[in-house]
Each structure stands twice: as structure tokens, then as C-alpha cells.
Design brief:
alpha/beta; 5-stranded mixed sheet; two-stranded antiparallel ribbon; 7 strands; globular; hydrolase; metal-binding; HARBI1-like
């Protein structure tokens, strides 16, 4: 990380810059308040946060990794199977809104979600260890979870056969051969067993998101520019993974910040459940693994 030379008398070294950014991430305070706590001006605080955020995002490839080798896939599927005996899973996917200020401009209303506030709808995937393996933080609040996935590189890699295994998603997603969602109206005992195992195993993504939000209260409501808000989301996700790998305990919040303090992602109750191959695959999967 490089220095920010604001003037000859007030240059912050890299450790001081990191401290300012971490203070911001770990609080719900305005930059002015963080600057006061760290003894720097709001302008300095803003520059430091953006510089540190960019430096962390530059390390994204090292801190966010989707299981793509046979050994990594085996570890993931075994870890997920241990939760509720659901085979073949390498990730759980969900969308979550991060509130932002009105971004302004001609497209501002696209960021207004169905709850009536401005947000970024972000896609997250995690593994059984509550480590994030994929994040997409560029979509406006009115976008549906399914559309974000359908236009993601993650989908492309599954379709091209670069990634193998099963993602678990909620009913907002289309059922596919590599994306298993709950049966909307379970009829048989096997379908009910499948739904229970699906929901229980998929729940790791809710836990991971709850931990991320608790560790970084700044994401309760971001007040920077769109580009900086997106970068802060990615940077804090990377830091979450680093903290998990180091077994850092979750902090005790100095104010009441619930783990699930953001609303549920956009869902379309009447989402069409797949291409036919997806539902056919799911039925075979249920008969093979949940029929007894």
C-alpha cells in the first residue's frame, strides 16, 4: 500500500491509513466522525478509505476463490453434506440489498427497490465454512436475483463446464442442473425431505451474510458514490474471508446491529421454475437421494 501525501506535515503511513479504513468499515459512522476519532479531516478520511478499499479489492483474486479443483470440490461437497446430507453441493447463493443514498442522475429510480429505498442488490455465494466464494456488487436495487445470476460470469462458467457441482438457491432462482431450488408445492415424502435438507444446507449463506453485516456495520447504509459503494462491499467481503481464515471473533457491536438487518432479496413469487432439464434433473435427484 502506498502513502497518501496530503501535505508535508500530515502524511499518513500505511498502517495509519489501514486503521482509518478499518474504523470506517467497522462502524456505521459518517466519514467526518471517523476522521474525528482518528484525528484526521473528513477529506483526508475519504481519500484514505478509497485508497485502502482499492488496495484490498486488488487482492480479490487471492481472497475470494470459487472451488474449481477436484480437491477443493471434494472438500466443499463433504462439508455441505455434513450439514443435512445433501450431496454434491459446492456453494449456496443468495441476493442481499445494501442500502445507499440516492445516486442521482437519469437512472436513479432503477436503484429504488421494492421496499422503497435506494440500494444495490448484490449476489453472494459462500461455502460450508461461511467463506464467500463469489460476489457481484454492481446491480441496482430493482434488479431481480435471477437476472443478476443469469448475466453473471458464474453462470457462464457453469454452462461452459469450467465449474462442476451444485449451487443451492431459493425460489427467486431458476432451477437448473447445477442450481437446485426448493420444490414449490411438495407432494411426496421424498420432496418434503429434499426441501428440508435444501433449506437447512442453503442456510449457510444467511449465516455468512449475517456475520458479514455484523462485522462491518458500514454496509447497513453506504453513503459514498456508486463506484465507491460497490468497492466497499467487495473489500469488506474480502476482509470477512480473511477474518474467518484467521478465526477472528465477531466484535460486540457498540450499538444494536442485528445480523440480518437488511430486507430479504427481491423475489418473484411466480418465477418460472426452469428450463425443463432443470426440473427433470431435480426430480431424478430427489428420487435417487431422498426417496428413503
Amino acid at each position: 500500500m502506498t502513502w497518501i501525501n496530503l501535505d508535508e506535515e500530515n502524511a499518513l503511513n500505511p498502517l495509519q491509513q489501514l486503521s482509518v479504513a478499518l474504523r470506517f468499515y467497522a462502524s456505521a459512522s459518517f466519514q467526518l466522525d471517523v476522521g474525528d476519532m482518528c484525528g484526521v479531516s473528513q477529506a483526508t478520511c475519504c481519500k484514505v478509505i478509497h485508497r485502502v478499499t482499492a488496495a484490498i479489492c486488488a487482492k480479490k483474486m487471492h481472497l475470494l476463490h470459487f472451488p474449481d479443483s477436484p480437491e477443493e470440490r471434494r472438500a466443499a461437497t463433504e462439508g455441505f453434506y455434513a450439514i443435512s446430507r445433501f450431496p454434491g453441493v459446492i456453494g449456496a447463493i443468495d441476493g442481499s440489498h445494501v442500502a445507499i443514498v440516492n445516486p442521482g442522475g437519469p437512472n436513479a429510480l432503477r436503484y429504488m427497490n421494492r421496499k422503497g429505498y435506494y440500494s444495490l442488490n448484490c449476489q453472494f455465494v459462500c461455502d460450508h465454512l461461511l467463506l464467500f466464494t463469489n460476489v457481484v456488487a454492481r446491480w441496482y436495487g430493482s434488479a431481480h436475483d435471477s437476472r443478476i445470476f443469469e448475466e453473471s460470469r458464474l453462470l457462464e462458467k457453469f454452462q461452459r463446464g469450467e465449474y462442476h457441482g451444485i449451487l443451492l438457491g431459493d425460489p427467486a432462482y431458476t432451477c437448473r442442473t447445477f442450481m437446485l431450488t426448493p420444490v414449490r408445492i411438495p407432494v411426496t415424502a421424498a420432496e418434503r425431505r429434499y426441501n428440508r435438507a435444501n433449506r437447512s444446507t442453503w442456510g449457510v449463506i444467511k449465516r455468512a451474510l449475517g456475520m458479514w453485516k455484523k462485522r462491518f456495520p458500514c454496509v447497513a447504509h453506504l453513503k459514498c458514490t456508486l463506484e465507491h459503494n460497490m468497492a466497499i462491499i467487495v473489500a469488506t467481503v474480502c476482509l470477512h474471508n480473511l477474518a474467518r481464515r484467521r478465526n477472528d471473533p465477531l466484535p460486540e457491536p457498540d450499538h444494536d446491529v442485528p445480523c440480518e438487518n437488511l430486507p430479504e432479496p427481491n423475489q418473484r413469487p411466480n418465477t418460472v421454475e426452469a428450463d425443463l432439464r432443470g426440473t427433470t434433473f431435480r426430480q431424478r435427484f430427489i428420487l435417487e437421494h431422498f426417496n428413503q
